[in-house]
């Protein structure tokens, strides 16, 4: 398993501020929610990307699904906690090296103000937090970035149409009409954060339409870049789609993270964007 990259050192200049969204949103079916529709996402890509953004000198607002993978401890949700300790000959418990490294890296970046974690569960929470993050980042102008890796619900039940209490199965089959979630990417791009560098994601199961959908999202929502990934290979490779490039990024080996090369490339493009824009912004 790859080790988490070391965080940026204290005192180094912050390159920018990035809002990373990670994990899947839920759609409640009742006002006093018992049942819900879930968009599954482990959050591994968002967590890994956060580590590499910090390594690249960014401060990160990590907007994540409760219970999803976290930066510097991406492997903990999948394994028994007891497997991360060893017993010495004197019957003393010791944490394995990579667990200690992850713990201290996490503590360090939070203490230095380089990582702020904000959890969400529902689609309603997610959109409200995204708007608040955009407002908070407005002072950094083009030095702000949005890396929208969360799996956001496409459909929802409006509050006024929800059952107030738990839906009863005794009532028989359930018929429910879902409403399409408003497309918030153009709102983010044009109203909430018009100067920020914005990256969205496109996941498809059919490789024949993947690039077509990514290019459509690039133009329709005025994104600066779209990360296109196929469900069968998303852990090994992605394609970064911009107005001028289609760059395939692959893992170098089994122990590498595809996010390392992806973030390196996005940081370069962000720096070029800031330089080209040539606007004066406040210091972080």
Q: Key terms for this structure?
A:
Phosphopantothenate--cysteine ligase 2; Rossmann fold; alpha/beta; 284 residues; eight-stranded mixed sheet
Tell me what the structure shows.
- With 284 residues, the chain is of the alpha/beta class.
- The protein has one domain: 3-Layer(aba) Sandwich (Rossmann fold).
- Helix content is 29%, strand content 23%.
- It is built from 6 helices and 14 strands.
- The protein is globular and about 60 Å long.
- One of its GO terms (molecular function) is phosphopantothenate--cysteine ligase activity.
- One of its GO terms (biological process) is coenzyme A biosynthetic process.
Indicate the radius of gyration in whole angstroms.
Answer: 20 Å
The profile of the biggest β sheet is: 8 strands, mixed
CATH class category label? Alpha Beta
The helix tally amounts to 6
Number of strands: 14
**CATH T-level fold name:** Rossmann fold
């Amino acid at each position: 398993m790859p080790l988490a990259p070391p965080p940026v050192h204290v005192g180094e200049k912050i390159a920018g501020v990035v809002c990373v969204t990670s994990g899947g949103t839920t759609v409640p079916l009742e006002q006093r929610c018992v049942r819900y529709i879930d968009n599954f996402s482990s959050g591994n890509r968002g967590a890994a990307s956060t580590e590499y953004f910090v390594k690249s000198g960014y401060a990160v607002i990590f907007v994540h699904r409760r219970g999803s993978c976290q930066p510097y401890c991406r492997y903990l949700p999948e394994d028994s906690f007891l497997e991360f300790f060893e017993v010495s000959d004197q019957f003393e418990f010791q944490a394995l090296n990579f667990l200690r490294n992850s713990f201290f890296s996490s503590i360090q970046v939070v203490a230095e103000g380089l990582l702020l974690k904000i959890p969400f569960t529902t689609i309603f929470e997610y959109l409200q937090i995204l708007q608040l993050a955009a407002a908070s980042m407005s002072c950094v102008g083009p030095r702000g970035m949005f890396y929208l890796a969360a799996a956001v619900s496409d459909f929802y039940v409006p509050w006024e149409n929800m059952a107030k209490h738990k839906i009863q199965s005794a009532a028989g089959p359930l018929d429910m009409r879902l409403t399409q979630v408003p497309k918030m990417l153009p709102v983010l791009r044009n109203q909430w954060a018009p100067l920020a560098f914005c990256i969205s994601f496109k996941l498809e199961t059919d490789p024949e339409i993947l690039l077509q959908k990514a290019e459509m999202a690039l133009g329709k929502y005025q994104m600066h870049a779209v990360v296109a990934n196929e469900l069968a290979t998303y852990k090994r490779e992605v394609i970064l789609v911009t107005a001028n490039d289609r760059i395939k990024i692959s893992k170098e080996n089994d122990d590498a993270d595809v996010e390392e090369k992806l973030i390196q490339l996005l940081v370069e493009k962000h720096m070029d964007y800031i330089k080209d824009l040539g606007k004066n912004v406040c210091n972080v």
